[in-house]
Amino acid sequence: MAPTTTGTRAGSARLFRDRREAGQVLAGLLAAYSHDDDVIVLGLARGGVPVAHEVSAALQAPLDVFVVRKLGLPDHPEVAVGAIAPGGRIVLNDDMVRGFGVTPTQLREVAEREGRELQRREEVYRGGRPPLEVAGKIVLLVDDGLATGASMRAAVLALRESEPAQVVVAVPAAPESTCRELAGLADEMICASMPTPFLAVGESYWDFRQTEDDEVCELLAAPVPGAPPAIESAAESIARVAVDCVDGVPPAAVLDEVVGDARIVLIGESSHGTHEFYAARAEITRWLIEHKGFTAVAAEADWPDAYRVNRWVQGAGGVLGRDVDDTGADTSAEEALSGFERFPAWMWRNDVVRDFVRWLRVHNEQIVDPAERVGFYGLDLYSLHRSMQEVLRYLDATEPAAAQRARARYACFDHTSDEDGQAYGYAAAFGAGASCEREVVAQLADLNRHALDYLGRDGLVATDEFFCAQQNAAAVRNAEMYYRTMFRGRVTSWNVRDTHMAQTLDALLGHLESRSSTGADAARVVVWAHNSHVGDARATEVGGDGQLTLGQLVRQRHGDACRLIGFSTYDGTVTAADEWGGPAHHKTVRTALPGSIEEVFHDTGKPSFLVRMPNRTGRVDMPAAEALDTVRLARAIGVIYLPGTERQSHYYHVRPADQYDAMIHIDHTQALRPLDPTSVWIKGQRPETYPSGL
User: Fold this and answer.
1) I want to staple 674 with a disulfide (CB 3.0 to 4.6 A). Which of 247, 337, 346, 420 is the partner?
2) Residue 369 lies in a domain
3) Are residues 577 and 502 both part of a single domain?
4) pLDDT tens-digit profile of 395-407?
C-alpha cells in the first residue's frame, strides 16, 4: 500500500475536550479498519493510551501499549535529541546531537537509563501479560499528538522489525511537516488536524493533564474487545432521537417546542445556493409569523436593497409607500427584488425568495394596523455607496441644509469609484488615499443629534423613514471600517461585519417595539443567514482565533430568548461561483468527507430530519449527546465552491451540541434557481463529470 497522509489544516484552536474525545474523532477516521480480526491498536505510553483505548473500543480491536522513551540532553532532559523503543531501537536527531555537542558517551548513558525505565514501565503496564503478537497484523499506532515525531519514528522503525503487515500511524494533532515526514515511514498516516501555526500538542486540547501510570494500567487491564456487544455508532445514536421532517420542515409540535418563547430565531444554511435550505427556511418562517407572532425577517442582505422589498411587502402607497425610484413604486415581487444587483444577486433574486415575498405581501394585506405588518430587512454592510445615496435622498426630502452637510462629508469618497469599497479600503489601509472615518462618524452623529426634528412630522411614516436613514448612515460608518480593516486580516474584518449585523438586529428590535401598539418585548425577528454567521463561534475552531459570529453575539446579549438552527446536506448540487464576482454555476456537491457531521447524519439513513442539541435543550440521551458533543468537521459553502480543494476551502472543526440549538439535515439537495439564470448556469444542469472532466 502506498504511503498516504490524511488530515486537515486548522487555525490555532483547542479542538478536543480531552484525550478521550480525540480518540473518538480518530476512530471515525479509522472506521475502515472496524471489526477486522487482523487489526490491533497500540497506544504510545503514556498519553497515547487513553486515545488508543477509544479507537480500540470503537473498532472492536485488541489494545496494547507501546513504550517509547525520549532521549533528552544530559543537562536538559526535557529537550529531546532522539528516542528509544522496545528492542533497543534508537532514533536520533543528528542535527540536534551535533548542535548541542552531545558526545557518544553521554548518549550511551542516557540510552541505558531510559532503556531500563522503558523495560520497567512495560512490566508495570502489562502486569505480567505478554505483548500482543504484531507479525502479519495491521498495527494502528496511536499517540495523543506529535511535535517533532522522534518518538513515533522510533516506534515505527522498531515495529518494522517484527514484520507487521501494515503500520498505520494515527494522531489527533501534529504539524503538517511531521505528518508528511512520517507518511514516508508508515503505510498510512492519519492526522486528524494540522494546526497552523503549531505551538504544542497541548494547545489542541482543553484538558491536557498528564496521564498517570495507574490510568494506563486500568485501561490496559480492561477486557480486550471482541466478545462484548457492538457499541452503538454515532449515526445510530442520532437516528434514535432524530425527528423526521418532510422537505426539511419539522412537524408543528416540534417547531413549537424548539422555539418556545424565543423572540429571535436564527435559521442558517450551509451554502448560499441550495434550494431546499431556502424553501424549508421560508416555510418555517411562515409558520413562525402565523403561529408565533413574528413581526420581521432580517436577512444577510444589504440594508437599502432589503428595505426596498420591505416597502413593497408593507404595501406600496401605504405606511412605507415612498416612491422607490424616480419611476414610482414597485408593482411586483420581481421589481422589488431588482435592487439586488451586486454579486451574488442569486442569493436573494431567486424563485424561493420571490414566492415568499409575494406571500408576505398578501399576509400583510390582511392586517389592519399598519404597525403590526411584517417587514423584511437587511443586516449586512456591503452597501457603502448605495447607503450614502439613501441618506442623501432622505435628507434632500426632509432637510436640504443637512443634505448639503452630508454631501460635503461623503465627498471624501469621491477619490475612488469602486462601488464595493475595496479600492477605498486598500488606499486608506496603505496610506495611498484619505481615510473617511471621521466624516462617516460625524454624519451618523449629526443625523442622531437631530432625530427629534425629523421625527416630529408625519407619525409612523416619519418614524420608519428616519429609522431607514439612520441605519443607512450606520451601514456607511461600519462599511467604511470594514473595508479599511479587510486588508489587516480576515478575523478583524469578519468581526466588524458580524458585530454590525448584531447591532442592526438590536436596533431593529428596538424600532419594532417602539412602533408596536402591544408594548415592549413584542418584536419577534427571524434571521436568515449562513451557518457560519448563525452558529456560535465559541463552538468552532475559528473561535480560537478570536472570530465572532452573529449567533454568538445574539446568545450573549439575549440568552434564552434566542434560538440558533443550522442546516446541512450530504451531497447534491449547488448554485455558486468559481471566484468572487464570477457568474453563477450549477455545480455538483461532492459527498461529505469521512468523519464529518454530514457523513454521520447521512449514515442515519434518514432523508431529512431535525435533531435537538442536548447542551441547549436539556434533553439528554447520553449516546446521542456524546455523538453531537464530539468535535467534527463541518462543511460551509458560501457563494464560491471549489470542489478540488474542498477540505481546505470548505471545512472547519465544530462542536455541534454547542454551535446550535437544533440542526436540520437534508441528505440530498438541489441547486437554488436564480430569477435570471445565465447560459452558464443552465449548461451546468447537465450531469457533471468531475473530476475527470470527460
Assistant:
1) 346
2) no
3) no
4) 999 899 999 999 9
